[in-house]
Amino acid sequence: MKRKFQQYFWCCALVVFLVLTGCGWSVQSAQALLRQHHDSPGVLRYHSQVSIKDEKGYAWQVLLFKQNYTSAVKDLRLRLVAFPNVVEIAHHQPLLIETAAGRLLNASDAYALAEPVPNVGEYNLTDILPKLPKTEALKLYVPLSGGQQLILNISNTVVTEWQWLVKEID
Fold first, then answer.
1. CA nearest to 122, candidates 151, 149, 82, 83
2. DSSP states of 90-142
3. How many C-alpha atoms does 144 have within 13 Å on its Cβ side?
4. Assuming Cys at both sites, which of 31, 107, 125, 163 could form a disulfide with 95, CB separation 3.0 to 4.6 Å?
5. How many whole angstroms separate alpha carbon 112 and alpha carbon 119?
6. pLDDT (tens digit per residue) in 120-136
7. Measuring CA to CA, how many Å separate 36 from each of 66, 74, 87, 134?
8. Residue 129 CA: distances (Å) to CA of 48, 107, 142, 146
């Protein structure tokens, strides 16, 4: 009787392990990370930050944050940061955003008056984010000098976090 119980126990344990392992493989993990920072003493702000590799394998920091907390309309900015001397972003060119359904949207360059450094781009998403699907992946076409474009794939988990950041956290 004791031996049958042990066999039954280990058989059940194996089945539970296999089910949990199988479920874990099919679930897509969240890649983005909500972070908080002190804007001024006693004032916390939140932003979404994720590291994404482009098609050449270079890592980019992708940050979505709110700008101008003191005004009624809070600007949403998307900052793209590459390693220095790897790419040169074409400032004054819009960022092209493609949805999974093939819809194309243009985000204007936030650095229209000043170019901070060639490997940093910042785009205004205030009017764009409400038009984006809530849970679908996106492609960002980053304008580079010389008329080229670089593609960054933004997963659906990151897009969901962006929507959550905008709607739930102030």
1. 82
2. -TTSPEEEEETT--EEEE-BTTSS----TTEEEEE-TTTGGGS-SS--EEEEE
3. 15
4. 107
5. 15
6. 999 999 999 888 888 89
7. 12, 17, 29, 22
8. 14, 10, 17, 28
pLDDT, tens digit (0-9, with 9 covering 90-100), for 76-120: 899 999 999 999 999 889 999 999 999 999 999 988 667 678 999
Longest distance between any two alpha carbons in the chain, whole Å: 81
By three-state DSSP, how is residue 43 classified?
A: strand
Distance, CA of 138 to CA of 156 (rounded, Å): 7
Write down how long the chain is. 170
Residue 140 CB neighbour total at 10 angstroms: 23
Residue 110 sits at φ, ψ, to 5 deg, of -80, -15
Q: What is the pLDDT of residues 7-59, one digit of tens each?
A: 666 655 555 555 555 554 443 343 555 556 655 676 667 789 999 999 889 99
